């Protein structure tokens, strides 16, 4: 079974992805800027191979990814995405799925940083460098992946529970 590299493994999205893959029996290489974080320790206990990796250190990132499937990734960079959506498109898809208006509001980077330095770093990266993924080629090259668009993902969620008002949460 191949090793699956998960970036941002101590963050919310990366951590959830790593835990789901481990629970499904996959071998996971958890890539994180914080290998000493409690979230990294938790992933190790679940069986992940935690490796220190920083997106700003391209050579280190390439080295870690090349170790997972060297023949496939030799000389290639692979970005993973199943779609390219603007925040307005995301809000539109969430509105349709949730059955109530969802709007997008840009939050200043300083405010994001106060809540999560990792999230601010990710947004800063996307703003400064962007992310260009050839999703059609990615899907074509890897048909074994069950690709799911954002609107399909959103439609599969239980929005009744997710959008319950905080006052209703204890009820």
In short:
The protein has 171 residues and is mainly alpha-helical. The chain contains ten helices and three strands. The protein has a three-stranded parallel beta sheet, sandwiched between helices.
Describe this structure in words.
The structure is a single chain. It is built from ten helices and three strands, in the order E-H-E-H-E-H-H-H-H-H-H-H-H. The chain has 171 residues and is mainly alpha-helical. The protein has a three-stranded parallel beta sheet, with helices on both faces. Helix 2 links the parallel strand 2 and strand 3. The protein is globular and about 45 Å long. The chain starts with a strand and ends in a 9-residue tail after the last helix. The mean pLDDT is 79.
Number of helical elements: 10
| Number of strand segments | 3
Q: What strand order characterises the main sheet?
A: 1-2-3
Low-pLDDT windows of residues:
none
How far apart the termini lie comes to 44 Å
- SSE sequence, one letter per element: EHEHEHHHHHHHH
Rg over C-alpha atoms, rounded to the nearest angstrom = 18 Å
**Biggest sheet record:** 3 strands, parallel
Query: What is the residue-mean pLDDT, rounded to a whole number?
Result: 79
Strand content: 5-15%
């Amino acid at each position: 079974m191949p090793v699956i590299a998960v970036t941002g493994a101590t963050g919310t999205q990366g951590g959830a992805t790593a835990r789901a893959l481990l629970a499904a029996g996959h071998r996971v290489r958890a890539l994180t800027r914080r290998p000493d974080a409690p979230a990294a320790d938790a992933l190790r206990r679940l069986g992940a191979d935690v490796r220190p990796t920083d997106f700003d250190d391209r050579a280190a990132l390439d080295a870690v990814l090349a170790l997972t499937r060297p023949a496939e990734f030799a000389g290639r960079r692979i970005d993973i995405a199943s779609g390219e959506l603007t925040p307005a498109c995301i809000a539109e898809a969430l509105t349709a799925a949730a059955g109530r208006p969802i709007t997008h509001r840009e939050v200043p980077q300083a405010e994001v940083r106060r809540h999560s330095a990792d999230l601010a770093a990710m947004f800063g990266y996307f703003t400064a460098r962007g992310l260009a993924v050839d999703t059609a080629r990615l899907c074509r090259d890897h048909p074994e992946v069950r690709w799911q668009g954002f609107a399909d993902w959103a439609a599969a969620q239980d929005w009744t529970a997710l959008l319950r008002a905080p006052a209703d949460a204890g009820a």
